[in-house]
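Can anyone check this?
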Amino acid sequence: MIAAKEITVTIDGKKCVGTQGQTILEIAHANGIMIPTLCYMKNLSPWGGCRMCIVEISGSPKVVPSCATPATDGTTVIAHNDRLRDLRKLTLELLFSERNHICPICPMNKGDCGLQHQGYVHGIDAIRYPYLYPAFPVDLSGKFLGFDHNRCILCTRCVRTCDEVEGVHTLDIGNRGVKNQIIVDLNTTFGQSTTCTNCGACVSACPTGALFDKNAAFHGPLAKCHQVNTTCTECAVGCGLVAYAKDNRIVDVFGDNDSPVNQGHLCARGRYETWAVKRDRIEHPLVRKNGKRTPVSWDEALQVIRTAAGKLTAPQKGLLVSGKLPNEVVTTLTKLQSRVGQIGMYVAEHEASLCGEPSFATDAFQRINDADAIIVLGAEPSRLQGVVAARIRTAVRKRGAKLVILDARPTDLDAYADIVAPIVSVERAFWQRVATTLQDAKRPVLLYGPKALTPLGITAMDKLIQLFANGTGPAVIGLPTTTNALALAGAGITPVDDVADWLTSHSLQMVHIVVSDEVEGSAKILRDRAVAGLLLALPCVVVQAAYESRLTELAQVVLPTLVWSEKSGTITNFEGRQLALRPALTPRGEGRDDQRILESVFA
């Protein structure tokens, strides 16, 4: 790869070094010269519409937007002088006058609004132009977000983010002149949208209070909140999070722009469902007495368990744990092998085979970004790994990559695919069509999920291998659905996808189930209707969980554990990266760390 040519640009009298292809703004910021912006956003295509970043170039009477103007070697640029300051101030005054920017009642007031910040920087305390006072609507129909068009400055950051990062292009600009506004789909609402994924990327991109999180509105400026960088544990991708907390509650969550995994982007699960969805939290130990679950002290709950366990031999006791547990718990689980007959990790249907011989997909995202053909086999990234789905959509829409989806439930990705086959055919004509679609692929990628390990999925895998037998084989990337399953399986914890068989194949009299803060954990365990009956027949069932569920209702003892925002430790994502978990909140109620609970129970 040929290195980019180095160039030198003089900005405000300072010699600045950059590379050919960089814009004036990029070189200025890299050399410590701050030029004001509103519509500019790193990693998005430049638009140059807000005109805040205008500069003068020696030899030209015009001002140009530095965000959209490539730098030229030897150029002299003026970024700050009286003329530019007056033009920027004029632009700001026009922006304030065009819409209804009433700062005192805006959720972005006092530090979070880019427009307000520029107003302070440029000394605006009055507007010289008449206010238009337009009557724009407020859309509160979205599941997690709201849109107040009165505060929109038409910077199009939301439009470009929706298009270039999430890849759905739900947002665009409609109408003309002073009636211009951002529209959803073909001028509908968020609540009626058929394309919006609720990822919240548009809210993260908005520099004003136009797009806002409904659950975060008016909880105070983010600048005054406790800020913690941690990792999302909703799937195996391990996206970087920036959690904002106030009064020991999560106020808002954004993607970590410095994360090598997601680079600031999140899906709805990581962005909202971890904190903006109300769930019944378990705050105290519970013991079933006379058919009713009763809150008790930790000492009493542990004594009940020890009394039951004391009558049993090690082979009669079983431990079934969630794949969300951090790496640090492995040490404790290893120590318990002599005290517990069976230790297993419950996973999604068919996922035991995927985790049985754990393999990490190094640089998976880079491979997807570079791919000219993507094959999805037995996986559901739209539903389970939203950030991966976003990369697939942008690869197809922006780079023209081919997309073939095999043996998967229908999802929104189907609309972008060249071939969709929910049930894979073995007919020659079908595979000839697949071969024709993929024949020119030079950098193919195969993303496979748990269903790829079924007999039908393995047949499809064999057919794909035959297709690439005489050419460049695809980069193979496994997509586990469980957060830390690959690392735990690699440490010797046996993955279990048939809980009923696991329960009946051993002479168990006591089962301790660690659901942790997994919302769908009980659904995974109880998907076979026979499991509930098997658990009810056992003399002792202990469930370690953060939230109420059907599973906790079946338990004799329930032990409260921590949620993601209270945890510390590390997890290993599907690329093999070890990622840190940092607590943003102090534990609620009497909840304890999973590792500490296990050590207390089996001491």
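Reply from J.R.: I decoded it. The chain has 20 helices and 28 strands.
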